[in-house]
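Components:
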Amino acid sequence: MRYALRRLGFFVLTLWVAITLNFLLPRLMPGNPALAMMAKFHNQNATPQTLHTLEILFGVNSHQSLLGQYFGYLHQIVTLNFGTSLDEYPASVTSVIGSAIWWTVGLVGITTVLAFILGTGLGIVSAWRRGGKLDSVVPPTFVITSAIPYFWMAMVLILVFALTLHWFPAQGGYYVTTDSPGLNLTFFQDVLNHAFLPAIALLITTIGTWILTMRNTMITTLAEDYVRMARAKGLPSWRIMLDYAARNAILPNLTGFAMSLGFVVSGAILIEYVFNYPGVGYMLLQAVSGEDYPLMQGLFLLITVTVLFAILLADILTAILDPRTRAAR
Amino acid sequence: MAMPVSGVATDTPAAQLPAGHALARIGRAIRSNRKATIGTILLLIFILIALFPGVIAHDSPTQDAYAPGLGISTAHLLGTNHYGQDLFSQLVYGTRNVLIIAFVVGLATTGIAVLIGVAAAYLGGGWDGSLNVLTDVLLVIPLFPLLIIIAAYAHGGSTLVLIAAITLTGWSYTARQLRAQALTLRSRDFLAAARVRGERQLYIIMVEVIPTMTSLIVACFLTNALYAVLFASSLQFIGLGDPNTVSWGTTLYWAENNAALQTGEPLWAIAPGACIAVLGSAFALLNYAFDEIGNPALRPVRKPRSKRA
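Structure:
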């Protein structure tokens, strides 16, 4: 219980830091970037109410002290008022993000789970057959894939499978001209078809970490006495591999899973960008190039909150699976 | 650009030798470990290219001197791009920018990480608690989106802005690793001996603790340098760098802007990315080799000779 409370406290603290960064960054930057944006909103003939919200969010035209501005800002964030998008005027930031989020959740969520399962499995087998064929190929290969920029992997896949072989579409989430979103089979197939290459790009660049972490912990675990004991008892080798070694070695991979989510997110941003995939990463970069700061801030908060929730979830899982964390203090 | 391979090396204490010996040991280890040898050679080649780009490439990287879209030839090893710039010399001259970012960020982040990690572990108590929370908070905030918004407010970053932003945000992972190792050192006898001798804390940290951690510190530098390369190139690629710098990421930015893949100039986009991947691999290979050096259990198994015969 103490453990759960500590993790929850950490969650709240980190969230507060992220919100505060969002507040401070535009105010600390030289040349007040928010002013230029406000001028654009004036050109859009924004309503006084919209302008007022933005003034609070970015501290423009405000005669309040920094602390006063800060509390105004916190109040808006807590009431989930992130302002109005500049690019999609007059839609609110919340509704604009809502249209993009499911694309990313589908693509990144499914791919991450797949990468975790496949990578952990390969790591287990690779460590178990130490020095075997798989083990001599897998670690060096994935040391190298972990150094490949995500966007480059995406470009190579587009070049080979979309532009040369024409097996898959090169960009987008579905055929905008011929297909319309709906709950039918053609649309579903279309979405899968478009998601395939981005998913593979993400899978290839993230799976290496799962494999290497799992393999390295597993090797340490395999040297433990209880594994030797299991061997001496004459248990079938698959049971030793899964129930004795892997079960104990998987914990660091789980915590690693949580910590690395931030990296998965950054990879997804670049991959969505290269594929023009209509998710939040692509939207974030669109917001940056259009100087749509309210949308940009909203997306940053959303991404951070998602990652924090995932970490909280992994912490809880670790606590359930590892009795030591429950006993500790 | 995957996440760091979680530190098995963290749990294994480094050699208990003075600094000079440790460096000599690292030198020996590099020669004896194949991954380390390949990584070192690749890195040295890149350093030479960065120091003397003019010797290798004869064309200006920025002048639109030739016909656009020329193919591969002896005059233009990688052809020319849409603007008629020689692609090969752009890559050769671009090496310097990437390496400067890698080394400056690598050194600066490692410096901060050593300072904070070792201080937290050695001072303990409230210091450890607060430094630890700071490290953990920074660790879980998604760095790349954070870098994107920083660069966006700065209206695209010059190399200096990129270096500053990546350094300030990127030290936490290695600080945590270093703290873990420093913690295992804290109760060792040689530190107790130094304390009994009445040495000052600063002396103990600088002369007794840090030299003992040399191999992990080098590994941290390599990790950070790899992330600097990947993050900086990514930011330049999406147009948040200075579009006038000669750099691999900037070349990629112009390639993407001109839809190089779709318009039949794939080399323009693929070649600089390949350079990033190779440089990144050099750092990653060296890093992995250091993991093996620090943790002998991970070293490749050598099969008995009789089996091969």
